[in-house]
Design a protein that fits this description.
Strand order of the largest sheet: 4-5-6-7-8-9-10-11
Organism: Nonlabens ponticola
Number of domains: 2
Distance between the termini: 32 Å
Number of strands: 12
Strand content: over 45%
Order of helices and strands: EEEEHEEHEEEEEEHH
Protein name: Outer membrane protein beta-barrel domain-containing protein
Radius of gyration: 25 Å
CATH architecture of the largest domain: Beta Barrel
Number of helices: 4
Amino acid sequence: MMLVTGYSFCQGQSIIANDKDEVLERAFMFDLHMQRTVPSGDNFIGNGLEFGYGFGSRLAFKVYDDIYVGGALSLDYFDVQDTNVIGEFDRSTKFNAYLFVGYDFRINETWNATADIGYGYSQNKNRQNFDQGSGRFRDSGNVLRFTSSIDYSFNKDISVFVSPSYELVSYNISTADALGDDFDNGNYLSFALGVRYNPSMRNEKSISKSEVAEMQELLKQDSNDLTVKERRRIYFYKRNKERQERRERRNKN
């Protein structure tokens, strides 16, 4: 007998009953999160704003295999740390609305990782205090955002996640030539913690004859000679077949 990630197999035992493999896939993902945002870079954002905090939501749909597309909204709140650098106001609220495309990678039964790139609209709404004149004005531009996450599933529908991200915002601000490009760009680094609603669906995928033969060869090998990737393949095949057999028994009863 050989043991592979919690499941035992007799050498040469077939775990492929037919030419279909059942895969549990997330149909879509809806996120709600809180985040801590750090202005960065040697520019008016990095040198002029304090660390901020905010919240956001994201909705993504699978479009092909593990590739997904979606949209997101977020708000961040900042206090000004240096008016000589950023201008005469004391608070700023940053709003993002963007679309993204990414990849959802399944690590094991309970852990998933995602990575995506997004592009869209960004706006900083700046407010002055009473002594500064109580005025309001906006700085807008385009945001390029790189986001990753890792989530832990409590069940097949609900998970919690942590998500670091990095934003590059190109602002459309008219300034004097003497100021150079200090007001052209702003950088932000964010760390989010949230809840993910990701209902899953069972999907059957065809297995080619070559994949069947390859799996049979893996089962004949000693477990110590298998790579982590090969052990994971055996684990998921075995688990899916056991689920199929249990469902078939329930249907017969």
